[in-house]
Amino acid sequence: MDSTSNPSKKPFVTGLLLCIALLLLAFAPLVLEPYLVIFLSAIFMNIVLTLSWTIFSGPTRYISLGSAAFFGVGVYVSALVGEFLYMPVVVAIGGIVSFILAFCIGLLTLRLKGTYFIIFTFGISELIKYSLLWWEANMTGTVGRWVFGVGNEMVYYVMLIIFMLTLLTAYIIKRSKFGMALQSIGENEEASVHIGVNVVILKTVTFAISAFFMGAAGAIMATRWAYIDPHIAFNTLFSFMPVLMAIFGGIGALYGPILGAGIFAILEEILITKFPYYYMLIFGFILIIMIMYLPAGLVGLIQKLFDSIKKNRTGNLEG
Question: Which of 217, 224, 229, 255 has a CA positioned 20 to 30 A from the CA of residue 94?
């Protein structure tokens, strides 16, 4: 009897594989070239942004385009206090400030639905960006700031820890009664209200939790850039890419956003190197194909393959 025929073995096997993968990742900087260490840090960043976005938007089906706001706040926190505090403290502050910002935004906007919520969250990101630009240009007289840098290995390990915490949080929420309540909101919000779910508070807290990890990722990734300004910190791509990576990987399972973000990061590196002027066009073409022929993303494709293999195996045993 294998693990597929005994469901009780699946969590153990999954946990064992995850522990092995994390152990290998922990020792990776000792054997990999510096370029690969930097590249893995970028992959972790993409995964954290995508997985954080999925924590809230996946079950509730509220499409948020505010990721750039929370990531950018973390970047600016690092630029402002990174020189004076220990990096773990800076990362925690970046996450907390993003949490507070998202909580306040959530109280104001999570009564909105559909297109209104999408536009509002994107507008908040742009508002913060251009407000900072105005402040720096008119009040400080300079645009942008220098960032206190740390070693590539420090960035790698902090991003790895943030990734592990994000994954653990996503897993706990998905398996808890709060995850079930979030799922019910996505399926029928009015019915959730009628059965006693405090919809506004639940959405707001979950939205803020997802923002915490985005802000923490921004705080540590800022140290890789010698200089930042509002256009760099609040880059519009940070709002759209998590959505696209989640759709590409598939939102139906936790490994979907991880798979989508990892493959996207690798594709981006290859395409920018080989086709620097056309890589966004190629990205768009890939996404159109995915949406047309694989609406469930890579998760749906993998599930179809497993179902096909299982069906063939059952047919062979009956034959």
Answer: 255
pTM: 0.88
Q: For residue range 124-164, what is the model confidence (pLDDT) as tens digits? A: 999 999 999 999 888 887 888 888 888 888 999 999 999 99
For residue 228, the cross-strand partners are 145
